[in-house]
Write a structure and sequence with these properties.
This protein is mainly α. The protein has one domain. It has 11 helices and no strands. It is globular, with a radius of gyration of 17 Å.
């Protein structure tokens, strides 16, 4: 039997980090549910996905109040990412998930380290139209496809790639990543619901604690200056990369 108090704690922690770092949370929810709450693998993989929707939207609401959402990036990323996610889900049986998780962890770790080499601290007004559509397409399709295979919302990759590849200001990248993560969580949620993998009680417990804490995390991020936020973001990416790498190598 799984531990409800532990699930509530995981939900609060993941919610806060989701709001702070612009990610859905599946990358740490799944292994945490298995390791600490004794949730079976299928439920641990699938149940965080529907919880991603209210969690990320709660945090995005905080960012929206500050006019930090890039509509162009969000709309194009969701439109291009959802078909890629569905295709990835369809092909998921053809790939070894653990190997892909290891490569993803290494990629996240490298991106985190790259933030210590240079920081994009420019807080000048940003004109969204300077972003070529092809760049948004590459990020959305690539991350969406990988999200479909790995059954997560892709937030761990969207936020850093929005900063590094699309050159979005940090806070705008985090805010936009949250909404895109919510959008891309929908196909995976429907698929796993159809397959009967989702434990809706776990979804409820995760959501109850994650929703208020994701809003709080977003408010903390908004109050930080860009340089401090990027350093925190980089450290957490490195931590997530190492955590996921060790978890999957042991598995």
């Amino acid at each position: 039997m799984y531990s409800i108090p532990i699930i509530l704690i995981i939900g609060a922690l993941v919610g806060f980090l989701s709001g702070l770092l612009g990610k859905g949370g599946s990358a740490i929810s799944t292994p945490s549910l298995q390791l600490f709450a004794r949730v079976n693998p299928f439920a641990a993989l699938a149940s965080p996905l529907p919880a991603t929707l209210p969690t990320t939207l709660s945090a995005a609401f905080a960012y929206k109040d500050e006019n930090l959402v890039s509509r162009k990036v969000v709309i194009y990323s969701i439109l291009c990412g959802i078909p890629a996610t569905l295709y990835g889900s369809w092909l998921s049986g053809s790939f070894k998930g653990q190997t892909l998780m290891i490569f993803t962890a290494i990629f996240v770790l490298v991106i985190g380290l790259s933030f210590f080499m240079s920081f994009s601290t420019n807080e000048l007004d940003f004109e969204e139209l300077v972003i070529p559509f092809w760049k948004i397409f590459v990020v959305a399709v690539g991350v969406g496809f990988l999200s479909g295979i790995l059954a997560n919302s892709g937030g761990i990759l969207f936020a850093p790639l929005f900063i590094r590849f699309l050159k979005l200001p940090t806070k705008k990248a985090l805010a936009s990543s949250l909404i895109v993560s919510a959008g891309l969580a929908i196909p995976g949620t429907l698929e796993h619901w159809y397959l009967g993998h989702i434990n809706w009680l776990i979804v409820l417990f995760l959501s109850v604690s994650s929703i208020p804490f994701s809003y709080l995390g977003a408010k903390v991020a908004i109050r930080m200056d860009n340089k401090t936020l990027e350093r925190v973001f980089a450290i957490m990416l490195i931590g997530f990369g190492i955590f996921d790498l060790v978890y999957n190598l042991k598995g």
